[in-house]
From TrEMBL:
CDD domains: YjgF_YER057c_UK114_like_1. It comes from Microbacterium saperdae. This is Enamine deaminase RidA (YjgF/YER057c/UK114 family). InterPro entries: Endoribo_LPSP/chorism_mut-like, RutC-like_sf. Residues 5-144 form the Endoribonuclease L-PSP/chorismate mutase-like domain. The lineage of its organism: Bacteria, Bacillati, Actinomycetota, Actinomycetes, Micrococcales. PANTHER family: ENDORIBONUCLEASE L-PSP_CHORISMATE MUTASE-LIKE DOMAIN-CONTAINING PROTEIN (PTHR43760:SF1), ENDORIBONUCLEASE-RELATED (PTHR43760).
């Protein structure tokens, strides 16, 4: 099954590629891989929430935002790869969670990104991963995700 067919089956429509908020490009391709820049959970050009997870933002909401970040990353990768069907799988995912001082549930939050990529790519969506708590993220976003995709 193609990636586009799997997305349709799951009822997932990829968003437009988010415009960079600084001096970088959303994704680059090199040596059979596509590396995405950090993707925030932009929806229709805006962040759905700001603040620290475990304080202003719940872990459940942050998990949903991590899912959005992963879909934004896939959209950016597809844009430079020549279409989503040129993406064969996922190699690595990096997740960053703006965390309240006592919050230690970063892995659960970043599962939102990992799980949606697993749903889309199946076994080819299995990946190495980091889930890191940080003091603050760009634009006060609660989460940020970067992904290294494998080209078909």
């Amino acid at each position: 099954m193609t990636v586009s067919a799997r997305l349709a089956e799951l009822g997932i429509e990829l968003p437009a590629v988010a415009a960079p908020v600084a001096a970088y490009v959303p994704a680059v391709s090199h040596g059979g891989l596509v590396y995405t820049s950090g993707q925030l959970p932009f929806t229709d050009g805006a962040l759905p929430a700001t603040g620290k997870v475990g304080a202003a933002v719940s872990a459940d909401d942050a998990k949903a935002y991590a899912r959005t970040c992963a879909l934004n990353a896939l959209a950016a990768a597809a844009d430079v790869a020549g279409g989503v069907d040129r993406i064969a799988g996922v190699l690595r995912l990096g997740g960053f969670v703006a965390s309240a001082t006592e919050f230690s549930g970063q892995p659960g939050v970043i599962n939102g990104a990992s799980e949606v990529l697993g749903e889309i790519f199946g076994d080819s969506g299995r990946h190495a991963r980091a889930a890191v708590g940080v003091a603050v993220l760009p634009l006060d976003s609660p989460v940020e995700v970067d992904v290294v995709f494998i080209l078909a």
